[in-house]
Specification:
By secondary structure, the protein is α/β, with parallel strands linked by helices. It has helices at residues 2-13, 32-51, 76-84, 100-105, and strands spanning 20-25, 59-65, 93-94, 109-114, 130-134. 33% of the residues lie in helices and 18% in strands.
């Protein structure tokens, strides 16, 4: 997992080299299940694309915590868990670390929502980039 996190953080610094950027985005509350879902699902996508024998277009897979970096320390459960499993928060990507608007404008953004099915009000303009939703029922009775 740490190697993947390092790789995804490197991708954030070099987004111009990718034709597609898959952002796995948790909910705005960014509680523990949202963070873990973002990391694990992004890792699974990365592993699948890495193991493909057919060359694919340059694609980045980035798990993004949907909070400012400064708020991470307030998520004490997450801080404890990640420390316990020796995951360095330096390699996490937070909402301000990646320019989602630029990716949207250049038609490279592929959003995957985990642990929610509707973007926050301030992010709703990116609905057009949502390609997958995991973790919340969208059906109505």
């Amino acid at each position: 997992m740490e190697a993947f996190l390092k790789h995804s953080k490197d991708c954030v610094g070099n987004l111009s080299q990718f034709t597609e950027v898959h952002v796995v985005l948790g909910n705005e509350a960014c509680d523990l299940d949202s963070m873990v879902s973002s990391l694990v699902y992004a890792f699974s996508i990365y592993e699948k694309t890495r193991l493909l024998s057919v060359p694919v277009k340059p694609t980045a897979v980035i798990p993004v915590f949907n909070i400012p970096k400064a708020d991470f320390c307030l998520r004490t459960e997450a801080v404890f868990l990640f420390k316990r499993f020796q995951l360095d928060p330096h390699y996490f990507t937070f909402i301000e670390d990646v320019n989602l608007q630029n990716l949207l404008d250049t038609k490279r953004l592929q959003l995957i929502l985990v642990d929610h099915n509707i973007l926050a009000q301030t992010q709703r303009h990116m609905d057009v980039a949502v390609i997958e939703i995991l973790g919340r029922c969208t059906c109505k009775k």
